[in-house]
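look at this record:
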Amino acid sequence: MSDNISAENINRIGVFGLGRFGFGLARRLAELGADVLAVDSDPDKVEAIDPLVSRAVCLDATNEYAVGKLNLEDLDLGIVCIGRNIQAGLLMTTVLQKCGMSEVIVRAIDQNQAEILHAMGVSRIISLEKEMANTVAENLLQPGLQRIASITAGHSLAEVKAKQSFVGKTLGELDFRNVYGVNVVAIKSTETVESEGGQERSFVSMNDLPAAEDVIEEGDVLVVIGSDEKIKALQADL
């Protein structure tokens, strides 16, 4: 995948393969406000994901004719999430490329598959073990930062705790894009309510379409998108 794609312009994402990883990824991307197309050949998986994403389609994504009907030119990014079936993952990647999907991220099971994908021109490859190791290291050393997913080389979606000086101010006043170089795509808030029995219960709400006039409250978590450098600088400033 080319490195010049701007992460802030990624919104329409196709997820191909709805195993545990693909299903969870599609659901999380949709929760964060992305327009997600979820594709799998298993009708049960498609039926399960359908209420959670913008569109779910049951088809064999290794079939070039079937994939050609999906209007891939409408997508900003395609993610191949096939598990242990390496041959199917490689074939699906080839089909997506032939059908006009220029930006493709692929999950690789081992180094051999990764090398083949590199030879096919896929420069953004997901290694779950490597990604998990990086995430654990970041969480230990940067407790205020939770990276959700790498979007392109050097760009991520991340959750950052709102610092005290943000509280009571609007997104427009803080002007994150110009001041910090990131875009705020959602705000997570924790609310506490008292039940009829007098017990307090907390729940998390998600503002996935924040407006300039929305005010940041105590304890809010900002879901931001931008370069890893800018995100870490924002977290370090907290």
